[in-house]
Amino acid sequence: MIYFDHNATTPIDKRVVEAMLPYLHTFYGNPSSLYRMGRVVKSAIETAREHVAALVDAQPTQVFFTSGGTEANNLALMSVPPNSKIVVSTIEHPSVIDPARKKNSSFLPVDSNGLVQPSSKEVFLSQSTSFDLVSVMLANNESGVIQDLKSIVQLLDDEKIIVHTDAVQAIGKIPVSFKELGVNLMSLSSHKIYGPKGSGALIIDKQLEVEPLLVGGGQENGLRSGTENVAAIVGFGKAAELALIELDRRKEHVLKLRVLLEQGLKTIPDTVIFAEQVERLPNTVQFGMLGVDGEMLLMQLDQKNIAVSSGSACSSGGGKVSPVLAAMGVDNSLAKSALRISLGQMNTAIEVDEFITILRSLVIKK
């Protein structure tokens, strides 16, 4: 199979599996136990915490492990006091949009390229008379568009507003610094960087008090009760370590493939690459084809043993237009044709060429 859906999930790295195995059968102790095996397991968690912190230029004490990016996003948004006012961008992942809808929330528009415009403070403040938290994702999971988050943080700096960013798609693909961005909360996920599913993290500013979603055990310094998923956390740590070491090489590899892919797409009539002129993740291309049904094309490609996506894996299906493209003002018929290609480390130029050849045969009438 040609797998072009790495923004949905990545295959787990063999080196990550090797790091996890001892904690599945040999070191099986509960990390809260005081005897030797418990201490060994606890130490492995703390080592993983250090690796995750290093990947995003944070302190280990700022890393709180969760079951994934969705829980991290929910923890960030649902932990503020009940009457808090929240502003989120219209292109956020469902795990931000849905909890925001349960709060006193406003939604921040984006331009035709999917960018939040931090040109004036009034753009934000007009969304509400006052608000307590802003959530803007660092990189979009569908379009790959990278936000100028640092400018947004600087814009709101004097307002004492909490800023959260979903950095799930950004880590391991571009350099990410919690410290330099200046945000207060940052969500991460393991399975987007060749780690295991079921592990993520919320990075929290030390000066910020966050209310837990889960109580009754006191793990993760009281913020996330429940016995830790040790093997998954160890795997996340190993994946983070490798992602940091190999960041430049990985970025260069997928960017070369993306250039080749976009060159091929431009040879197919009536093809539109979304947000082509702005900064995007090096591995991501979202495009539409006039007169084509995107979901039908996805299934035809699947029959050819090629896996692509029509949008977020957490919200795809049902024939609905992508909320991200709708927020960008993309015409409904073009949006319904959209496909997303997200490249990974195992992909090759031969696979890209084969994909273009097959795509052309499916959409160009003989």
Describe this protein's structure:
The protein is of the alpha/beta class. It folds into 2 domains: 2-10 and 248-363, Aspartate Aminotransferase, domain 1; 14-245, Type I PLP-dependent aspartate aminotransferase-like (Major domain) (Aspartate Aminotransferase, domain 2, 3-Layer(aba) Sandwich), CATH 3.40.640.10. Helix content is 37%, strand content 13%. The protein has helices at 14-20, 22-25, 36-55, 69-78, 94-101, 121-125, 149-156, 178-181, 230-245, 247-265, 294-303, 323-327, 332-335, 349-363, and strands spanning 2-3, 63-66, 85-89, 104-108, 133-135, 162-166, 185-189, 200-204, 271-273, 284-289, 306-307, 339-342. Strands 2-8-7-6-5-3-4 form a 7-stranded mixed β-sheet, sandwiched between helices. Strands 9-10-12 form a 3-stranded antiparallel β-sheet. Strand 6, helix 8 (178-181) and strand 7 form a beta-alpha-beta unit. Helix 3 (36-55) runs parallel beside helix 9 and helix 10 (247-265) runs parallel beside helix 14 (349-363). It is globular and about 70 Å long. The model has no long low-confidence stretch (mean pLDDT 92).
